[in-house]
Amino acid sequence: MAADVTHVSPSRPAGPAAAEHGPGTVSGAVREVWQALDQDPTRNRTGRERDPQQAPDGFFWDIWLSQDDPTRVREARARMMRQYMDTSVEPCADFYTYACGGWAKSHPIPPDKTVFDTFETLREMLDAALRVELERPNGEEPAPSLSRLEKRVEPAAAIPVSTSPLQRATAPAPPTALDDEGGDPASDAGGAEKRKQAAASAGAHTDATTKAKWLYKSCMNHELLEARGVAPLVELLRKLGGWPVLDPAGWDDRGFDWLHLVAQLRLYNNDILISEWVGPDVKNSDQYVIQLDQTGLGLPTRDYFLAPSNAPYLKAYRDFMVEVMELLGADTATAVAHAAEIVSFETSLAQIVASSEERRNVSQLYRRLSLQGLCDLVPGVDWRRYLAVVLGRNIPDEQPVVIFALRYMSDLVALVDKNPRRVVADYLLWRFVRHRINSLGDLFGAAKQRLLHALMGREAVPPRWKTCVAHVNSHMGMALGALFVRRYFDHNSKQDTLEMTRDITQSFREMLNETEWIDEETRRLALHKVDSMQLRIGYPDFVLDRPALNERYEDVDVHPDKYFENTLNILRKLARVEQERLGTPVNKTLWNTAPAVVNAYYSRNKNQIMFPAGILQPPFYHRHLPRSLNYGGIGVVIGHEITHGFDDKGRLFDEHGNLLQWWGEDAIINFHERAQCLINQYSNYSVSEIDLLINGENTQGENIADNGGVKQAFRAYERWAAQHADAAQAETLPGVNATGRQLFFINFAQVWCSSMRPEAMRSKLKIAVHSPARFRVIGTLSNSREFAEVFNCPVGSPMNPGEKCSVW
Question: Residue 706 catalytic?
């Protein structure tokens, strides 16, 4: 469902309104969030008092502040809805502009973003809340949750820090003192030496949420990052055998073994040249199996290297490479020469990588064989030696292996053999370095900004705190999610979402039973798959179980002053946990999606739908908003994810998450005919800003899900309205001249209100599986008979064409 769905500051002193808005009140908690955004919710960016009618940010402030006041929540949402709309546009002519025509005027794209939409607005608020929690000293009494629940979650008393030495830092730095946040209760009593000893011994057994705060603190310690400079990365490169560009005279190719280096880099959770992982077998989802695939590239798609029209982007990539090499100590002439060779090698690599269009059907890519069989088919790679390094043990010849890119592996061997060892080493370590510079100082961030400006049009580097919040959420998402859920999550939303999911699932069952183009056996199995779908809402239970959460991170060493090493430790942990799954049973109840994200997911291999806590907020959901808005928001998301189980990829998997042909032959033919209608429809949409067409083939899965999701959610809303006639009469918003049925479609459209830089749109269209926001609205609603009826759109009008496409 993606929208295509990161210095520890001292605790701020209470302001003059502390008595009214202190840390123990709902408004105090929200005010902290606004301060984290470097904004005053009562003032606009010029310092003048905010007018909520004119300041869209203020709408979110009003909603957050008014959690228990249904009238104020609805008034705030109504103001938001009115400002997003352009009612001078006829809804039957262009419903996206009707619903979102005011968005761009009031939401200029921030300099540090390439796109600004409702998802990004929610992420801004969410990230600010996460910043508040990461900067909150341990032991501070939490405010009530924003919904003032009677049974809210209160954090347990802080667990004393247990200590052990750092275990996995590649190049340990001298220990430094801990601050008040989770450290030495003796404070200054033991002096600086005692604090150093405490810092040196703090390690694997520290509380998980404290580790998350330490990771954030280490990321924010700008002065220390600059003082340490490039030394941590240069030392790591030396231990990996050296990067030729940094020592062209001293690097000796006689000891170079490309496969061993690829395996070593995999231990840091990097897939370079060979993509390897241990995961559930797509044809037997109860069994973990070693899996192999082609590599990713340093630019979004192979066309960036191969299409002449993309030459400016390739030059920007090469310039970025040269700048990074120079910052790490290479002289300019050497950097320019080596970068040219690396780009040449990667261009050849792009030629043997299959395109996304060639890889849509996983059943055609899947090949399961024994390790011995793999060695026989691709003898140029010593698979036994590679896997022994990656998995940390020898693998028997009869061990099953699944490979999705057999031809690529043979072509890779030929490519490596025909290139000098130095060039291969340069390329491998360049790809590794590119990820590792994110843990270094500002000069590397500036270099990356120049590349992103060329590729995506981004105008500025994000504030450091945003980068650090994102880093913690991606690397310790469950620990950070625990902080978020304890303080901000409305637990009533979990039950509401569950009830809506049941309603919308019933809608899909009805649609399946009404579908005439599938045979009875396929229908029976499809209904069984719907009934077997697992639902995950909000967060996994263990995030509120402090011992269980601590156990998840117990052997991850995090130090408040070692950002580079912290990142390596976490990456090695992630890689190790994944490899250790081999030989263990698959636990399909596990939920690995962090709670504090604004997105939703469907897992084909688990037949599982996930709605993290971060998405259960306006405009998707609020318990005091009209049901029409909730069904048009999170309801459509629910229907979207259900439909993913039956799109062009999801339909290939059965109720257990196994790749299996369970459809009848005629049903398959009929499905493809209907999917082709959508492919043709969306392929004819042109993005006027850049004069490019949408790729209807690549976006078909999401387009199928969008169309099915709206149909299911509206059907469920209509059923609710019929069963609750009195409540349905109150389905209005103050000052918005729309019925409940109309509000459903307006809210669906406003979920996709968006502005995007032309460079970002051009890049997105090259790789996107989602249609641009405008066409997610126009394409979906022009296929909806219900929409045309609700807005009285004449047949033949732009939003009610005579020819419509429908899969589900």
Answer: yes
